[in-house]
Amino acid sequence: MRGLPFYLLSILCLASSQKVPRLKLNLQDAQRFNFGERERPAAMFHEPGSNQVLVGGRGKLLLLTFTDSEVTPKEVPLKADEKAEKDCKSKARALWDCDNFIQVIEKLDNKMMVCGTNAASPKCWFLVNATTFQTDKQGRNITASGENISAASPSQNAVVITVEDTLYSALSGEKSSIQRSYGKKKGLKTENSWLPRAEFVGAALLAEKDQSKDEIFFFYNEVNQSAGLDEEPYKAGLGRVCKVDQGGRPVMTDSWSTFLKARLVCGHPTEPMRFHRLQDAFVSKKEGGKGETVLYGVFSSAWGSSAVCSYSMNRISTVFKTSKFKGVTGPIPVPRPGMCVQPDGHPPLPKSTLTFIKDHPEIDSVIYPDEEHPLYILQNNDTYTQVVVDSVQDAAGISRDVLFLGTAKGKIHKVLRSKDQTVIVAELSPFKKEAPVSSMILDDDSGHLYASTEFEVVRLQLADCDQYKENCWKCILARDPYCGWDGEQKTCSAVSQDTNSTGSLLQNLDSSSTASMCENAEEKLAQEALKKVSVDPTGYIYLPCPLRSHHAIYTWVKDDKTYPCSMDEQSCTLRFGESTPMDQGVFKCTSREEGYQEEITAFKVTLNSGRIPEVSVAVMAMGILFLTITILLL
């Protein structure tokens, strides 16, 4: 590990990106619903363009309707079957396991399929609308086995994806598998030896112009069974099957005949600092097939740090089609194992190809990120848990990727991926209780983001331009692709997503200087009033300067003399003491960012000659009470 410090330096040089949020926004007025108790929601569903979200809870399904003024809940009970609950408790399982935790909510054949653990006996129900169950002629709920769709325990994870009214599912645990589990197409599964003890985190469809070549990818972690004491305990991977797969004939009739898998690594191939555990993945598809389809993954490491990596899906697909196979030195059968072949009108795959796939499903090439390094490494004591990505049109009509990243502390990072850098535009704090973000759904039709923890669900606006509305500089420096400065209205406004619109809003999303962009904006920041402070000559005093941007450089100045300050999350504080003796005069705090300089605050300090103070404030430093100072705000 001697090379680790050098690699950290190389990461800093390679990624010219800001690794701390520029703004930290506490969204007290966010539209929010509190469950009232710990629900552990494992599933959320939202129809694009609607104002409702379905949330799977413990023994119930919640329908939440969001309006501008309130969130209205409606509860649909979904208790575990009495027999299943009784059997569960008889097997000495924990009472927590013997409930019905809703893990899957998917739209299928114009109805909703809802599946839960059902006291360790997974089961599915069908809704004809958000709150009404599908029933038979006798009025009984129509149900189906959820054994291959939902996990049996709430501690296990289930990943599902619907493609052409067919459900594909991946179950984590000791008997992990990828299956075509429900629908009109033939049911298929992976062989037991292909995915030992996998933990699935996501799935995505990679659509091709020729639909017979469509591929379905699943993203997961495997326990690294050969890991040494100082090696990573997990390996991230992706498995892939072809949509047209109908199983092998005459062997492997119920197994995938096109399954392949590969290692997925976030980091450089030759450097020691890599991220191996995948927390979440999202595939960003461009509308109308314009631009690259990109896989974004958030990874963690054994030492507690977090990173974001991106991968071209076209490059991944090509690697699957061309790579050597792991552990194979001899010839590869023809047709090549794993190719998407339309079954109709084609002869069955030869036995040699099927046997090869059964014994060698892993390709030899390791999938490394674009540019072979992370987009950035998160530099604080938090880690990422979730990621969704929006492709938004900026003021110049250029498509930009905006990442929304949920953290283990209940924060959401809004991140712009620009041409030559990645910028954390803002850190949003929308939740009342600190808990990991467990689910996020992006709705670019209505312009909202839905996010949940085990305690709450919130809805946020994607274009929240009011945060920067007062001033041209605030709007431009935010580098928020949803927002631009409207010179006529003198406000920060949302950028139209109409592809035919020709916007006239000011923006600067890349690294070029912003120094002259707001020269003709005819507006000024309102400066705070000069604060007057009187203090005993033998005392010490702290002067706070609130941080308006965590990407700016802050300076305290008096009579052209610069003073150092102490930085924390909220302030650049000027601390007088032995190294900085007390002085009187006007102390100004200024910030500089991208060529723009702003005066944040100013204090006029006078040394008290002994008169009785009007207002007393106790000042503590390093646990010692130094003095009582007088602050006179005149």
TrEMBL record:
Stretches assigned to the Sema domain: 22-462
SMART domains registered for this protein in UniProt: PSI, Sema
UniProt keyword terms in alphabetical order: Disulfide bond, Glycoprotein, Membrane, Signal, Transmembrane, Transmembrane helix
Family matches, as Gene3D superfamilies: Immunoglobulins, ligand-binding face of the semaphorins, domain 2, YVTN repeat-like/Quinoprotein amine dehydrogenase
GO biological process, one term: neural crest cell migration
Residues of the Ig-like domain: 523-601
One Gene Ontology term of the molecular function aspect: chemorepellent activity
This protein's record includes keyword Signal: yes
Signal peptide: 1-17
Ribosomal protein among keywords: no
Subcellular localization, as worded in the UniProt entry: Membrane
Membrane spanning residue stretches: 615-633
Gene Ontology, cellular component aspect: plasma membrane
Pfam families named in the record: PSI (PF01437), Sema (PF01403)
Main localization category: membrane
Family of the protein in this entry: Belongs to the semaphorin family.
Protein name per Swiss-Prot or TrEMBL: Semaphorin-7A-like
Gene: LOC114586803
